[in-house]
Amino acid sequence: MSPSGVTVFISLLAVHRLTAMGPDMMPSMMNVCNYSMMSFPPLPSDFNTMAKKLMAECLKMEQQIPMMMDGLQNSSVVQDGMPPNPFFMYHTLLSSPPRPPWIPSPSNQTNNTMEPLPYEMDWNMTVKFQNCSYLPDMIALIKNSSGEPNCFMRTFVAHLSWKALLANGSEMDQSEFRMLLLAAKPFLQSMLPKRLVLPPNLRLPHVAGMVKMFDEVFGSLTLGQRVQFHEWVKERILRNYFNCSMRPRKPSGKPEDEREERVKKEKVKEKENNEGKKRDDEEGEDEREERVKKEKVKEKENNEGKKRDDEEGEDEREERVKKEKVKEKENNEGKKRDDEEGEGAPGRPGRPPYCRPRMKWLNATVMEMMGRFLTLLPGKEFKDIPSDQLCIFFRKPQFPTSFRGVGGVPPSLGKKLLETVKGCFQDGQEFLQHLGRLGNLACFYDDPKSLNASMSEILLSQLEECENSRSNKLKKKLVLTIVSSQRGGSLSPQLLQYMGTAVSVLPLSQLNKFKPSDLRKAIASLRRAKWMLAQAMFLARHLLNDTKSVSGQDLLNLGSVVRGVTTSVLRKFKAKKLMETGELDTLSQRLSVLQRTAVLEGLLRDVNASELVHRISGPLIASLSLSTLEQANLHSVDQLEGKSWNRAQSVLLLKNIIGKEMRPKDIMKLKSALRGVTCEMINSVNQSEVLAVAQALTGSMHWLSKTQICCAAKKLFFSLKKERKDYFINITDSELKAIPTPLLVHLPVEAIRRLPDSVCSCFLDKMSEANLTTLPLSSFARSALTDRALACLGKNTSDLSSEDITTLGPLVCELGPSHLSDLGADAHNATLLALAMCLQLNPKHRRSIFQMLRETYGDPSDWSSSTMTSVGSLLLLNDTAVSSLSYKAWLKDALLDLLESLPSAQSPPAPEEFRIQPDLSLLHKKIFYLTTNSSEPSPATRRKREVASVEPIMLSAIEELGERNVYWSPDQLAYMSPEVFSNGVYILGEVVDFNPQQLEALRNKTIQVWGKVDSLSESQVLQLGCVSQAFSPAELKELNITSLDTLELLSLCGWSHNQIEAVWQGYVNHTGMTVGALGAVEMVGLGQFICGLSLEEIRELNTDAFREALSNVGRVECPFSTTQLLKEQAVLVFGQPSNWTEAQVNTVGNIIIGLNNTELMSLNPSVFAFIIQSAIPRILPGRLAALLPSQLQALGPDNAAMVNDAQKERLGENQLVALGKALGTPYILKEVNSPNIPTPVPQQHVGLNNTELMSLNPSVFAFIIQSAIPRILPGRLAALLPSQLQALGPDNAAMVNDAQKERLGENQLVALGKALGTPYILKEVNSPNIPTPVPQQHGERKWDVEGAEWRRER
Asked: Which residues touch 422 (CB under 8 Å, ≥6 apart)?
């Protein structure tokens, strides 16, 4: 009998039993579960939502939904004075968890297979659950039960268990605490809020239990949650062991602590009451009568006040009530804070004293208890660990697991710990006996030569999670040691299986030596490794035996190798079964854009759009076109949860589903769909919900653009000032706390300066966690926030301590030269260490910071390795500092560690105003030099190199360098041996930026080793990758390219337009493909080679296929003439640009630069924030100048920062002001002279500025005297509306000179032509600042006027 049948039959029997039971039977039945006196906690406000989401996880695991009967839902027994058993909600929740439409609700499930059950089963679970009055009893019942319903019950009590722990954890015994903690695990795994709430006071055994549980869910925690929990654990340890706190007192702007002040006031009030009572006893009759009179007067005043309340307007009453609520909230928060702080030292009520700096609190016991959270400690804390304690910890069972699955140990920390651990043993040989205990510390082992084969195998098995750049080199050396120990020095199939992820270090030449059967036996290792594309394609071809038809299980088994499966195979693959099991989403994580498009094409043949959209998520759903999404007919926010929507999809769905009715509860569910929130939606939020919406939005910051953040900030501040005009002048602590920090940093400068001293403590707390990267580097708010924080500290800069520097948090990064020069010695060093951690530094401060660095630490060439680790990032502030570093044995590793510590490169590259990564080219070049020159050359070696031929390139160097192979000289590449070229070319093929001379050398080497271009196989072309850029257009036409996968790979390279046309023609010649046969998959696979189609061919593209592929085609950057024709195709798909929505504008991507002046001006301002960033600098300056100020302001900071200097020169002052508002850096009105326009002579009659000129009525323009017209500054004349220019009439229009006309947009020129009576013919207006194109030569980069970008021509 099915589990669902069992459950429903039990339910029916339970109903019968309950209805037949008399009152005398009820107590005896309740005794079944009453061994604990812990009642159910009050239901949290979000209990229903959380429980539904957790139950949905059971559905994802394909657990059968228990079938409950309606009659049970209200039959729980309730005891007086106790919270009710929440089991009465179970049926309701089961009938409405978020579920895909193909999974029926419990009431809809058929049950045709029910069999009779023994009567004894009537006591099974359901009845017992309903009659438990205590939470631990219910948990015990769940623990002792089995079967699928158990999953739903565990998720049902998970949130309740966590709430009970938060409320009463400190009062529980160890067994109860452990029971509730285990029951809360489902909640901890998937539903923890971003900002953790943890028990304030726990005994150490309970703390240890918490750490153990959070260690089990470590992988599901975000980095922010891990850091919060780690800080909580540290605080609990310090309080329990050392009676001190790491939470320092922050200045409050008041003479005494707020709590002390509040206590004083209460004592004064109590004293007054006592004195009043004493006075009553002592005063005479006359005095008493006088006092009674006064009281009556006061009572009369109160009555009048009440009468006034009745008479006052609604607005006044609401305002007064609001103020009273704020005051009440502050009092409650103060009381709550008192309760949480607990008792402390006499000198500091409520909190223990601050722990002394550098206190040695880490001992072996503490480290063992902290588990993997130990790795989150800063490096300076590890340096203070006593060596003997670390040695004791190393021998404990917990040590290896403390360094596994932690996402990469920082290199400086890993090396320091490993060095200390080595010191625990008398000699190296003794240490080698403990190699298996290193965990992730094995990633930093630096002496593989000392290991034999068996020890190499032990170390290799621990390198699975290594993320540092040197781990591949270490794996390679260990593999070579193991291979050399094999008979004949070759790899055996057995070793291939054993190697794990280290198998990826094998070059193609060695992988090619294995039989397909051997590779299939080693699939467990192969599927987990990280492969380069050429390797993955080789392995996929051999593992699948070149078959044209594969099953879903075949593809799942490939793991990471699936990236190498050809599109032709995926198009025939039946993905429906994998979609139904949910495994397709796992598979799609590893696929390329082209592969996903091919899979979706097949799916859409088998299922309709609605089912497809409901069943898939992850990157696969982000590949769906807008038209497919519209067919799915989504209608609720719940349907958007758990899916990875792209930006265009998000805004389409949100406008269809929520429109302008955005609510906080909806925002919490949106996740990736938050990308589609528009400023219009934010501005439409009701006044009463603005703060809640702002808090909800900033709870998912990683989904928000800078534009959305700015809009949310402006809306919030406007709302608060509407609530109280002087809101920020007399803001309270609780009010400031309520403002999300990401929005607070956007507070207007004047408001920042006028924040009261009473909120200083709260302000400093919020600034310590602020992220300033959403502010432009030139924003005035940066310095205003810094000045306010310094004022809150109440000290001169010269008096700042190192603790003050820590308190400033990221605002340290904004300290200017005047501040830095005044710092004392203690703060001086702390500041430099803090500056080295900054994501951004003001370009104007870089020189002074670097000078301070040299004065403190001396010449960087004389630094020690520890100094380089601490402040090495500041060397990037100087253009020559890194390249001039002298050789040291440790330097290369230190620079690699520095590189890994820097934020990853932004994609696409951020504009200068928001850039967080400095130029790393000189650092990469230095690492290249240190890699290819592994030791300091002696004078004799230098002389020998000068007369000797070019040193040969080694394969090991190519493998280690990766993208840094771009620094080989053409001569070195030319002298590469054929063997090294054959084995390493697939690595060189991933380098995009070889210069023409390097490419020429590689071209010659290719022909020397592999033969003529027309004889190359497609497999060889795949290995060549971007080295193919070396071929001329004529050679490229002969290149053997027949698959879309090859085109997708080559599309990533930097081709000239002539080469793009040649590759397209070659593909057509080899495949017989016609333009009319290009489907969506083909258009996506072409990538930038779609730009190679002729103008006639573009017009022949299939409109339906173009619609499906448009989001990908729109990301390609084609020449201007091609883009204009692609624009015509976009108009066929979406209609006239004046009607384009935000989703459509985002989808067309770079094609938007093909719009002419009229079409650009017709766009709704709301869509400008959704133009993709790469398109902005490619809009012709004359066309951008045609935009209205309202359109430019709507660009938002993300897009406004992309406007380049050539474009700004064509803008009028009003437009520049609007652009400054969009960016968040007010533009100061000033003259903007074009370098090509003569300096104007002194003006007498043309002194009106842009605003004043634009304010003139069109009717007056015909009466301006003719001599004034040519003397109006071109930029000011360009600010006029077409209607004003047309009103000049023929007399004045004829006086407009060429310099003025060059600044006019096309619509303005048309209007001027009408005024003159000579119609203007619309044509391209090229910017005078773009160089005239010259004939293109082989291998040179030239300016492409139409495309407005540099391209390499061959």
From this structure: 428, 431
